Batch of 2 targets.
Target 1
Amino acid sequence: MRAVVRQAVRDVRTAPPPPPAGPPADPALTELRRVVDDLAATTHQLGELMLEVAPAYLSDTAAADVLTLLCEQIGETLDNDLAARRYAMAGDRRALHGTIL
């Protein structure tokens, strides 16, 4: 049952962002968008890992207490990992503003 609920929540949270209005004329901009999309996808996966360790019912302060050691072990900053956790919960890239993206 836990796996079914986890998969359902993951499916809801990982809804793809809306596509850009039109294709950019500049191929460099197209490549940059692809790189940003890849970074966001990887960050979402990291956020899911953070949620496994510090579930969504924990506040950022309580999650920071739990995640500090993990962040040190994987070489990530706590701020970036908390932002990734918020992004995995909300699916909104604005959660990453000022940290990763």
Note: The radius of gyration is 15 Å.
Target 2
Amino acid sequence: MLFCAVLGKLTVKSWVSLPLLFLGSATGVAALIDLLLSQRALTLQSELSLSAPLLFGFAAGLAMFSANQVQWRFRWQRRSLRFTYPLAMVVCAIAVDALTLPTSAALIIGPVAAVLLAALLMRNNTNRDEADCLTS
């Protein structure tokens, strides 16, 4: 019910995009914070180190907890994709220790992902059906 108030009903494509856009947005925020608060002389050619377990763990949780809001078109999607997609992110969280990206790339990816994430959330919020949210 928590996500229903924010997300409404999601399409499968929106559900798959949601954690990926979160990852991109979080990367941009981390790059901006690193750029603004860094004590050292920071240039756009510097590297940004991110905690992959933290990012992919949050993305996996987002995918898992928002799966109840998806309008699954086929039974196989509901049975397999619903569990394998968050599980793949958990595997990434366990397998990858840290991500290192150029700061300039993170500053480009972040705002684009944030705008797309906001557009996805606003579109789903305007398309949601309150009665549908209360019965699910």
Note: The chain has a mean pLDDT of 84.
